[in-house]
Amino acid sequence: MKKVYYSLLLLFIATTTLAQGIAIQGIARDNTNSAITNTDLTFTFRITKNDNTELYSETQAIKTDNFGVFSHIVSTGNPTTSAFSNVDFSITNLKMKVWVVYEGNTIAVYNQTFQYTPYAFFAEKAAFATNATNADNGVPTGSIIAYRGATAPEGWVLCNGQSLTSITGATALIALVGNTAPNLQGTFLRGTGVSTTNGKSGPALGNFQNDAFESHLHGISLNTKSTSLGNIPLSGAEWRAMNIETANSGGFTYKVLVGDDNRRNTTGIHNHTINGDVSSTGDIETRPVNYGVNYIIKL
Predict the structure, then answer these.
(1) According to the lineage, what is the superkingdom (predicted)?
(2) What angle do CA 243, 247, 250 make, to 5 degrees?
């Protein structure tokens, strides 16, 4: 039976930070420097502080290939501690430690300090600690942008009012906006505060502002004053003899009172009140030309 030594089992191992986790790749060799090919090996990966305090641990069965090469992304294995997302990568001098079980022996094969801080994971923790003022890729948590796609890309969620509590990596965003993403469907964005250009006010931060028309007047000019007919030189008997109830004078027709006397009922100069509405026109809202997008918000 071949005996495996620490110095020879993993002749090469490297770590690389990816969006999903920390990639591990190595070549498994025995004490004769021969590759351990097509073999199932059980690995344990641990992230610790410099004083060996364990922050995260997971196990994973990995099969080597025809050349003894194996690879794995730490964060995708079977965790034996709290979640990978809870690791505080802002701590300096963190270590990656790797153990492997081979031929019944558990062997420590890697124990190195990270040569650089996994920036994406550090930024996420820093964003949470500073109310989302920093984030990976230079985009702060809570940033909202217009997006042409129907499904949010990794690290973002749609602004459609969805719950954030079950979304991985949403801790910093929840601290900023609460348990649900803002629902910006059918909504325009506007700067909060008061404009120094026109004095108009936007909505309070994180609040909606209802649609409205600016107060204004519609001018109207109508002349509705009537003109008195004056006295018509006919007696009451003459009106009755004519058997009419209207008379025309100066192009206007007037109703007259037919009675026993020779005076008719007139109202003289007076005004008329006009009520009513202008015919309706337009759509259900006032809006500029627009183009449909989804708004997305950064985790």
Answers:
(1) Bacteria
(2) 160
pLDDT, tens digit, 9 for 90 and up, residues 18-58? 556 888 888 888 877 888 999 999 999 999 998 999 999 99
In order of their start, the domains of the chain are: 6-117 (2.60.40), 120-177 (no CATH)
The parts of the chain modelled with pLDDT lower than 70 are: 1-20, 115-138, 221-272, 276-278
Residues 2 and 37 sit within 8 Å (Cβ to Cβ): no
Helix ranges (H only) for the chain are 6-9, 119-129, 171-177, 236-242
Sign of the torsion formed by the C-alpha atoms of 43, 44, 47 and 51: negative
CB 298 within 8 A of CB 143: yes
Say which amino acid occupies 217.
Answer: L
List Cβ<8 Å contacts ≥24 apart for 46-49: 46/96, 46/97, 46/98, 46/99, 47/74, 47/87, 47/94, 47/95, 47/96, 47/97, 48/94, 48/95, 48/97, 49/91, 49/93, 49/94, 49/95
Write out pLDDT tens, residues 268-292: 566 667 776 667 778 888 888 889 9
Residues with Cβ within 8 Å of residue 139, at least 6 apart in sequence: 298
3-state secondary structure of 244: coil
Structure tokens at 112: 């190195």
